[in-house]
């Protein structure tokens, strides 16, 4: 009886391995790791926003619309519970992606406005924050690309025979991925300029 159980367990293990169970596990963990890194980099960016907004406000308080836009975009990002399970929920993932895209665009608008304020551009704290933001945006792009690849590998695996049967049996869903629409534009880091020379002798009218 004991020998029969051993043979049965061995047979089940071999069957699971042959049907891609172990590979599904590996790919699922790879997606989780890639997603965790995406969240880490997005959080790093969100943490920079308050200091960046306050620094800009010190030199360009009249740019209320742009400053408010960045603050509100960050708040929308923070309102989303970005759990590991989010990648299995199409609606939640779309909402997350949209919120992050809005923050990206708001930050681009903020940096565009700062071009009109030479004193702000020459401020050491602002220059440091710009540098940190640029580095973070680059890391976001790398993390997103790794996540995209991990999800593609996973989704292809659970759609392919015979691993698709295993995925159905154990209820492994397709993972959500970043859309390709406007991917290049969204992933492009905000322009960072350290040229402190004013564009014209006079400051812009307010």
Spell out the blueprint of helices and strands:
Blueprint: H1 2-18, H2 21-59, H3 64-78, H4 90-114, H5 118-122, H6 124-159, H7 163-169, H8 183-187
CATH topology: the name is de novo design (two linked rop proteins)
Helicity range of the residues?
over 70%
Number of domains: 1
What is the assigned CATH homologous superfamily? Answer: LemA-like domain
Write the element-wise H/E pattern from the N-terminal end onward: HHHHHHHH
Strand count: 0
Global Rg: 24 Å
Largest sheet: none
Which CATH class is shown? Mainly Alpha
Structural class: mainly alpha
The general outline is: elongated
Q: What would your notes on this structure say?
A:
This protein has 206 residues and is an all-alpha fold. It has a single domain, classed as LemA-like domain (de novo design (two linked rop proteins)). It is 72% helix and 0% strand. The chain is built from eight helices and no strands. It has helices at 2-18, 21-59, 64-78, 90-114, 118-122, 124-159, 163-169, 183-187. The longest helix has 39 residues, at 21-59. It is elongated and about 80 Å long. The termini are far apart. The relative contact order is 0.16.
